Hints:
The chain is α/β, with parallel strands linked by helices. It has helices at 2-8, 29-50, 63-69, 86-91, 131-137, 157-171, 185-192, 197-201, 212-217, 230-237, 252-262, 274-286, 289-300, 307-319; strands at residues 55-57, 75-79, 97-100, 115-117, 146-150, 175-179, 203-206, 221-224, 241-243, 266-268, 321-322, 325-326.
Amino acid sequence: MEETLVTRNNIPYTAISAAGVHGVGPAKLPGNIWKLIKGFFSARRILKQFNPDALFFTGGFVAFPMAVAAIGKPSLLYVPDIEPGLALKALSRFAKTIALTTEASMQYFPNTSNFSITGYPVRPGLKEWDRAKALDYFNFDPSLPTLTVAGGSKGARSINTAVMKILPSLLEKMQVIHLTGHLDWELLDSQASNLTKEQQKRYQAFPYLHEMGAALAAPDLIVSRAGASILGEYPLFGLPAILIPYPYAWRYQQINANYLVDRGAAITLRDEDLDQHLYDEIIKLIDDPLRLTKMSQSMSDLAVPDSATKIAGLIHDVAGIINGGVSG
């Protein structure tokens, strides 16, 4: 996905071999280690050719070969989730500076002091959307409540399935923007064709939406997973959320969700409880405008402006760039 987004913006892109080792079974572990070794040598070639002034890492196993190959070069590490992954913890030993979305992440780096709290960077174009413009984009009625359901770029099958089961009932009371992801798109699109014409007016589904600002500006409430982007995008729009952390991985999403819940900005549902409780939780919030307003304000209070600019400034600092040139 990242390659598609980068090349779509005409930015040069080079891939290296990498694979995860945390939680990997013994059958796959040797092959994954070999991929990391190949990635290390690819990274060395890239460093020699490109000769960067600084390196910027946002974590994940793909960063590890490059970080090892670049030991000794100045680098900035950005931690998007509240809890850093194993790769980020390892990379922190090599980083000159560590940028954090929130202060809550500092507890995971007890032996490091070179922190900067930047917030989560969001795309500049997101805030070009306001509620009126977004509702008009979807041809929605401003007098009706609006719900966005987002399962991520690939989609979240359990969320998609649960929503489709209750969709006709939801559409009796509200309008729904459904970002399905690509994996289930054909099946869900087929199911949506069975909706009545009146229901179809209140339902807009997309496998992927580049105009994400519209999907975040229009709704009164969002249902989604709890990846790192919720820490930046939802506060930007003051968007109350029902969060369903991904259950089949380490606890990163659960900790992200807990951070927002503890501050009154969201509620959580377990993935296994979707069929039983999703409809009731949506309706309880949609029917309680006062609570939604309080959640919205709590979410807005967590917004950190100009996060991307702050991170860019740190990259300049790490590289020693002053007034467009390189110091020393």
